[in-house]
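Morning run. Coffee first, then this:
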Amino acid sequence: MTKTKLRLPDRKIKVTLRDVALRADVSESTVSRIMRDEGLVAEATRAKVMESVRALGYVPNRIAGSLASLDSHLLGVVVPSLSNIVFPEVLQGINAALRDSRYQAVISVSDYDMDREETLVRGILAWQPKAILITGFDHTLTTRRMLDQSGVRVVEMMEIDSAPIDVAVGMSHRKAGYAAGRHLVERGYRRFGYVGHDWTSDRRARHRYDGLSEALSEAGLSIVAHAIADGSSSVGAGKQQTAQLRAMADVDVAVFSNDDMAVGGVFHCLEAGLSVPGQLAIFGFNGLEMGRELPQPLSTIRSNRFLIGQKAIEAILGVPERPATKTTIDTGFEIFPGATA
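And here it is:
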């Protein structure tokens, strides 16, 4: 019986910087400068080297380069969610601002868990990034201590209602809530209901609620009923909680923690045969596309999410070393009157 000899696959050999240099007929230092995008290099030489890089499938060893030069081109980014459209839009702003730079973002998701955020920050800082961009001001004491002592640039995104570790980029959520309250009072609403979600995972929603309450108090009013979902925000939760709100009290306007919840409120009204805003006015927050595309565009507050990501990058690339003074960048907001309130 003839034995079939098992043929093992050829062992892959890692392509080195030297291999690229030999193929392109240039020095290794020239290849290194082109891969780091540093120094002046003739375009013809750059094209020849990049053709060799692509042909050989070369991947530079950034770890070795960083250890040699004590310089990292990585930026750590920690966001709480990717399923919430708010944060992908922030990431789009980050990506746009990095497009023509030598830096690259490494993105991590905390799932609104501060302990998870602490683990992610520890791992990112171990790579000695140029900077770290993180969402909000709520961190564990250990996370705050690590960020404060790291010496790298730190940008806390989305809000500016507290003092930052280094840079804060975003909007005042308390002022946004206050502006919403004033706007609705001026439009003649008097019996306010509030529909929201778990504040422990979203302090910014609580700030907006506090601002709303302040505006109503100044007008001699208050929120007469609350319907708060146990978990995170969603269209389904907004629909369910709107039904609960209407069972609690007769309100003429419902203010929602965000547009996801508010769109759920619109769906409840459609299902219950209620006219909007005639029988129940609805007001959201964020200015999401799905709210704008409703048959009656959602009344809401628009936040500048793309600008937040863009300004966060500009703040740290413009001043690569952490300065002694803290910086706050207000990206603002605007009321969109819409047609639901």
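The first helix runs from residue 17 to 24. Good start to the day.
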